[in-house]
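Hi V.,

You were right to ask for the full record rather than a summary. Here it is.
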Amino acid sequence: MTRADFVPLSTYHELSEEEMQQAADDFLATMQRRRTVRDFSDRPVPREIIESCLLAAGTAPNGANRQPWRFVVVGDPAIKTRIREEAEEEEREFYSGKAPPEWIEALEHLGTDEHKPFLETAPWLIVIFAESYELMDDGTKAKNYYVSESVGIATGMLVTACHHAGLVTLTHTPSPMKFLNEVLERPANERAFLILVCGYPDEAATVPDITKKSIDEIAVFVE
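Predicted structure:
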């Protein structure tokens, strides 16, 4: 592989320390309004908005710039129904004994169960796949690096982009998720990472009354 051409960094815009602090505080306030939602409206969301959010996610840093993600965006009602049916079957097994008791106990305060109506109600399901390798035109396999880390970063940026655009999301991870390859006809080099449910909140939506950890609980400064 030939070395990439390098060009001057022309996109960086430096801010004063005061502007940096204000920008950081404004962004913090925006993200503190983000909530995971399980009650979705069926109001349509234009595809173009989702595309812009996906392009933002696609700017994520990743191993060797291999960009090992594939976003399969599902709006087809019949496919959403199939995904719900398959996911709920996995969830029934999870809640009826497959999951260890301590896991069920940890979820109890959130009120979750095997019923996942949002998989049909929300206008878009973004199924995120991680590519372990890329299949080249000549049939050879090109290995991807730091796949889970790269896809995780891109997923976080996608959640943030959707929130910034005025949408709400839910990260859903039925276990196992192999059925998604079959339902969505995805190749063997792709592994389902999670389903991001995306749309508007229902007018009567509620969320659990929870808090986030303080700076002292999540960060250590070594100065």
